[in-house]
């Protein structure tokens, strides 16, 4: 049974919202009545398709072009939202990229691009919009990964960024509780999205068989956990990392 959330009158920003997990979060929030701003990098057709598919219950999805990891682009996005002078109830830092290879083959560009996009961009967006979220005593959810908890071979850059997001989440939760802002993180395992396209099929079968649930996760399952953390049902939860991995990290 799918929970029916009510986010009427709420306003959210989802970074990296045009595909994968972000797309499902945008759809869920908009269909629950929220006005959802979401960023996309270059695929305008996917962004417009998502916009037109959202809002069955009065919510709206509004695409905003932003190349996260470019400091000027991140600051431009923040300034445009600040200039609107509207409250922001929910901030979902979801944007992320991978540049996978063994560490000894990884060059400075592979390292910097992943850290800039996945971690530094989150800092600039959250710092710039925190006052707006605090005005509404809102909630922040950061999309980390099991890679940030356990490490993964070939992902020293990605795992470092995701581990940094966990430290960021816990530290900010301690700083922001006094102004009524909750900050949590979701750590997905292997989720069936386009990000897995470059993973060999044999590796995916191995991962699926290894998890306790014996399958890949679905992006809508991660979106549901995110919605819970944003909602009043999670009003006493902050500074936590909720793992959504089918039991993968429980295995030796």
Automatic annotation (TrEMBL):
Q: Which domain of life is it from?
A: Bacteria
Q: Which InterPro entries match?
A: KR_dom, NAD(P)-bd_dom_sf, Sc_DH/Rdtase_CS, SDR, SDR_fam
Any idea where the Ketoreductase domain is? 10-189
Q: Which organism is it from?
A: Cohnella soli
Question: What SMART domains does UniProt report for this protein, alphabetically?
Answer: PKS_KR
Q: What is this protein called?
A: SDR family oxidoreductase
What the entry lists under PROSITE patterns is as follows:
ADH_SHORT
Gene3D superfamilies according to UniProt:
NAD(P)-binding Rossmann-like Domain
